[in-house]
Design brief:
This protein is an all-alpha fold. It has a domain of about 90 residues. About 70% of the residues lie in helices and about 0% in strands. The protein is built from 19 helices and no strands.
Length: about 475
Amino acid sequence: MNKKQMSYYVIPFLGTMVCLWYIKAATCNIVYTDYIRLVNSYLPDVWNPDKFFVPDVLTRIPIHYLGRIINVAFFNYSTTFDMILGVLGLGLSGFVLARYCILRQLGYGWYLLLMLSLFGLNKWEMLINGTGWGHFLAFAFFYYHYIVIDRVINNTGKKRDQAVLWLLPSFITLGLAGPYCAVYSATVAVFYTAAAGYKICKLYRDKDKNRSLTSLTNLTEQIRYWVYGCISVMLPLFLYMWSNSYAVEDHAGAKDITLWAAAAADPGFFPRFLLKAFASMLTGKELLEKWIEQGLITDGTVYLMGVIIIAGYVLAFYLNWRYRLYRKTMLPLILLVSGLGNHAIVLLTRYIFLKEDYGMSSRYALQYQVGILGIILTFGFLWKRMRLFWSRLLAAAFCACLLLGHGCTNYREWKMAPHREYYVEEIAALALRFEEASDDELRKKFEYRDKEPGSGAKIRQALTILKEQQWNVFCRGQTKEETK
């Protein structure tokens, strides 16, 4: 490995360190929000098979069971441990993409922009919510699988790649991905179909009769490749959906309304939802809300930001088609399709809350950023080949907006880190005296279904379990200062 290649690996390492420092500066070891449900559902006996072998086990992200066992056995159920796992999963994504960029010889400037987007703090809510650590790991495996597909389609793969393609979807879908498996599976199936269709059409265009037998053999291989590939992806997806049919959906604050009824009641709701969701990948939701509150911008400005991101997608798709980038590498196109799929799935599953800014939440930035990575890779690979001045101008303008937006968001999050730490320290202090606190006080502070009357009792139940086991904030010898 030469010095230039080493420098590519240094960047994701530094990005991982920055995110670890952020969770140190913005959090402390205390359960709240989604952790309340997890504690009541799985603790204290994390080895109990009855809590694992449930009908909808595949919807629970099975790898979390192993993480929970390790956490309880060695770390007294530390939320910090889960957050560190999440950051390490994000770092793994960085190293996977770094390897790809080295092999594909992406320019260093474009690579830095790619890593800036990957490790941006616009996903702060995911970083400091340890319950979602498995999602970061899942996306690292998504990227790896997409890269293997890219290698095989472009005939640059390794001998083991074919076996990896057949086996990896089952591990990802049934062990890691959880609800994210839908877009991942659909994206992989689409590209298997597209690749097989392209090669079959190419074989049919072969007019050389002397090679007809070879062409027929190749055609059979392509059909078999497509069938096996789609089965390897769709079978675990079917098993996940079957398991999900046993799950009891319980979305706090959701409305019982169909997609068509929501569209008929407010035809502009879905366009506004999508534009704001796209805008959140330029600048974080909290910063946009602050600017609106201060009168610096209006909702129209937010919609314009969404249009900028959409324009980036359109330009990236156009450049992929014009310069046939997919013949050299398909990963940028795969990421673009996956990014749009993630926007679509968030809309289809979250419209029930009837809040047009719901899709702007930082918890979705991990999904949305997939498309942004695809845009950056497209611009980076084709920058020197762009012959039209306007295409270079638009690509440069988009990247400048992205840098400015991410820079503002990252700066705000660094300033907010001490405030977030202070807030969770207040929760930790309340947890230590929860037996004296009222249900209303617990509901408000622990951010767990604060509109439901029974949530206070559930919070009290979870804290009682932790206190009896001397875990988390109740760990022996731990004081308030030690939770910092």
